[in-house]
Amino acid sequence: MPELIKVGFIGLSATGWGAQYNGPALLDPSLKDRLKLTAVSTTSPETAAASAKMYGEKAGNEVKAYHGSSARITADPDVDLVVVSVKTLLHKEVSIPVFETGLKKRVFLEWPIGRGMSETLDVANAAKKHGFTPIVGLQARCSGVVQKIKSLLDSGVIGRVISSRFIFVVPREARIWTPYANVDNGRRYSLEKKNGATPLMIAGGHQLDAFMFALGQFTSISASAAQIHPTLTLCNSTGTPTGETMASQFYDHYTFSGVLSSGVHATFILQMGVSSVPGRKTLDWVIEGDKGMIQALSETTFGGCINLASPNLYLNGEEVKVDGVKAGEWDAVGILVSQWAEVAKGSSGSCATIGDAIRLKEILEAVERSVDEGRTIKINA
After folding, report:
1. What is the mean pLDDT of residues 188-214?
2. Fold for the domain defined by 140-378
3. Where would I find the Gal80p-like C-terminal domain in this sequence (predicted)?
């Protein structure tokens, strides 16, 4: 029998992202012999009690309620794995007390681990100082489609990989960031650049990690960017405008290219805020080899975000079916189930490490520097 890992989840509330996706994924029947939710921690006694009650009923076992310092849930002897999944502006504040307990627990941190590189390094240094090796929630690399792409590449079926392009679109119908921004459930914080939840860092970071997981890391970056939508229209989750607008604080279109550590020439394009129209691809990822090609395609609203939806996969024009994958559909829960399955494997799983996260953030910061300075940025191996 595999080891049963008892999970204490910081930030798993009764509403929001956790309730919709992380909770159902963690409690998926396929994981019941590997992961068991035993405790939750939120910001107040009331929300903690509500969350513990709801998830206890769903899990069929007692779930303890904690609030306040993250050290409290970490100290629970019935917690083996501490999950930190809170807003970016709280990542550092919540993560470091977990490490300062010195308790030998597994730790999972949600991407992007703080508002900027400085906070990410503070968290990483605290983890290292106290002997922790946290893993990071970059779940796209754990998805069935990305795992299959990597398997095909490793098999040599398309020969030597020469180049790759990754074009993804987050259309206006998604109501994320621009030009329409859903501000329900406290999401307004993501519209302020200082909070570190920008389109490039969140949407770009998740897709870029999967891209580099399959193909290798960028060693140079030449980037350009534009702000196509200077004004944001705030709305609720159904798309009804609140009557308020605000000036955009970020670029919404990026194009960058460079050479990967594998020698592959790569181009990466992020487009935000265009309309969904028939025939418009929200994802067009092509990998060219000297003996063949792999392509991942989607036309669905969130199809460009392979951490949330699974594209259709093709090898030399023939569709490749991936077991357990809902190709062409929104599949946030299914992809998170795959992530938690990899988490349960520990060091043998495919989850990103905090070192991977630092490297990814270095590359995203190189994109911003290239845009600002108008030059190619070299990235140290």
Report:
1. 96
2. Dihydrodipicolinate Reductase; domain 2 (3.30.360)
3. 146-295
